Structure formats: C-alpha cells, structure tokens
Amino acid sequence: MVALTRRQREMYDFLCTFTDSHGYSPSFEEIAEGMGLSSLATVHKHIGNLETKGLLKRDYNRARSIEVLRPKGQLKKSMAATAAVGASLPFLGRIAAGQPIEAISNPETISLGDFTGSKDVFVLEVSGESMQDEHIVDGDYVLVERTNTARDGEIIVALVDTSDTTLKRIYREGETIRLQPSNAKMQPIRVPAASVQIQGRVIGVLRKY
Known about the structure:
By secondary structure, the protein is an alpha+beta fold. Helices cover about 20% and strands about 30% of the residues.
C-alpha cells in the first residue's frame, strides 16, 4: 500500500465503503457530506491526490466515474455477493408438479457462472415493489451485467440526474426516456435522455425464502 496521509486514508476508506455498499461510486457532494467537508475543492484535491498515487481512476466524461483500485490481494467487499455468482450447487434433476425428483446416480453441479458466463456481473438488493409484475419484489437480489447500453424494453439499473438510481424497463421516446415500472399502481418516469445513465442490465433474479 502506498503511503497516505490520515485524511487521504479516510477518503480512500470512505470511497471503498460507499462503492461496496451501493455498487456505484459517490458523487462529489456525497463525498463532502460523508466526510464532513464543506468545500468541494477539498474533495477534488483529495481525489486528485489518490488518483496520482494510483488508487483511483476517473472517466472525466461520465458522472460517478470514480473507480477504486484495490491493492493486490485486497478483497472488494462489494464483490462478496458477486463471488457467489461463481458458486456451484448440486443439480439433482428435474421436477414436475406432483412428481418426485428424478433420481440421478452421479449428481451434477450447476454454477451461477453458467448463467453469467464471462460477463462483468454484480448483485443488487431490490428495495420497493415497482417491479412486482416481473416477479421482482422487495428483498430479492438481481444479477446485473455491467453495461452502459440497453435495448428498449430491457430491465436496467438507471442513474437519473447523477443522484437517483432506479430499476425499471427502458423505452426511448425521441429526446425523452421512459423508465417504466412493472406495477399497475405506479406511473412511469419520463426524463430527458441526457439525464439518464445506464449502469447495468438485469440478467437474473435470486430470492431467499
């Protein structure tokens, strides 16, 4: 680990913790609030120092683009759930309603990696009922392929106005994007296309009973 001042270490730890918890990097305003800083200039200074020391990367043309670089051997907490994507479980057969499980003398295993392939996938916990008609409900976990593009009708993780993240189906309507919930009681969100950043595409759902 490179040498850091106490404040740089606190900033780095904050960025790690925030990214691990949310699955995306904080805005400069969130950094200032979380670190108790009154000046965004101070935030820029610390971020620049950490970038110079090789602990961060930034895309200057994209919002929330801070990428925390971990020293070799350090586990990303946010990837703990993602690591489970590679876990294997015993595959004992197929079941039809009312029928016993087919006996298999040499049980196979099935890995969530079979679903994700070589995609860059992360896991998010769902909060709310806006996608309930897709059988995605509060407390479920969605497998999200990290991408900044999606076709109309796909379920995506969208960042709106660099501050609000939501899970919706995306539809492009001219210069407007409609973020459509799958809940008859909720209205769609319509926003200028320029204010929406696609962060990922849902490829699967996990549910714990």
